Amino acid sequence: MNTMTLWHISLPECSALAFAALLVGFSKTAVSGANTVSLAIFAAVLPARASTGVLLPILIVGDILAVLTYRRHAHWPTLWRLFPAVAAGVVLGTVFLLWADDGIVRTSIGVILLMMAAVTWWRRRTAEQEDDPEAVTTRAGRVKARSYGVLGGFTTMVANAGGPVMSMYLLSAGFRKLGFLGTSAFFFLIVNVSKVPFSVGLGLIDGPSLLLDAALAVFVLPGALLGKWAVNRINQRLFEQLVIAATVVGGAQLLIR
């Protein structure tokens, strides 16, 4: 990030970034996918390409807090099944960033998110929910895991927007609330940390961007605490509706911007 850009952020813009950081913490411990709103705020305040590099360390702070909160609820067979496909998606996303402009990136991801939300909503309207996430061990489950994994890796690399894609996968696999949050917490901590070398290589993370991250990271904790308080007061059906709604809002924002 250009140092002049960093030091010329106005007070209202700083407030907007602080709110976005707080929302990251909330999304990591309550409604996964809601941080697409944070993505939109960062991209509105900062240059779109640079904003992804600034947001990534903030997301990692939120991931650490989520892992500390829900570490006992992770479903590791699902995680191991996803990681190879996600790695392929991250590589594809890195190649994509080498030539795609901001408009192409936003449009592509916005369409993907809206399609995932529509498919998940339709599935939940027409089929009974699986109570056991081990259903992903079937052949159809493995194909679905690979498809969502590649999409998740791709979208998280190009715009830190993998949350909604993985949210749609975990909902469609039948995860209940705590299992959903625990599995996604470990998933995104591992994936986001693995993205750091790619982001540094692309020039998206540098000294000035890390200075801004240090100032914003303090706002992630109250957001995470608020999320932990709220998640115990949200029933499963409302939880699923909020996740899908956050995905639709995030996808629409990417298309409108």
Q: How would you sum up this structure in a few lines?
A:
It is built from 12 helices and no strands. The chain is mainly alpha-helical and 257 residues long.
How would you describe what is shown here?
The structure is a single chain. Helix 2 (11-29) runs parallel beside helix 11 (220-231), helix 3 (35-45) runs parallel beside helix 12 (236-256) and helix 5 (76-99) packs parallel to helix 9 (177-201). This protein has 12 helices and no strands. Helices cover 81% and strands 0% of the residues. It has 257 residues and is mostly helical.
Write the layout of secondary structure elements.
Elements: H1 3-7, H2 11-29, H3 35-45, H4 48-70, H5 76-99, H6 102-126, H7 139-159, H8 162-172, H9 177-201, H10 207-216, H11 220-231, H12 236-256
Helix pairs in contact: 2-3, 2-4, 2-11, 3-4, 3-12, 4-9, 4-10, 4-11, 5-7, 5-9, 6-7, 6-8, 6-12, 7-8, 8-12
Order of helices and strands: HHHHHHHHHHHH
Round the Cα radius of gyration to an integer and report it. 17 Å
Structural class label:
mainly alpha
What's the number of helices? Answer: 12
> Kindly, what is the distance between the CA atoms of the first and last residues, rounded to a whole number of angstroms?
21 Å
User: What value does the average pLDDT take?
Assistant: 80
Query: How big a fraction of the residues is strand?
Result: under 5%
Largest sheet: none
- Proportion of residues in helical segments: over 70%
Tell me, what's the shape? globular
Low-pLDDT residue intervals, each spanning 5 or more residues? none
Quantity of strands, as a count: 0
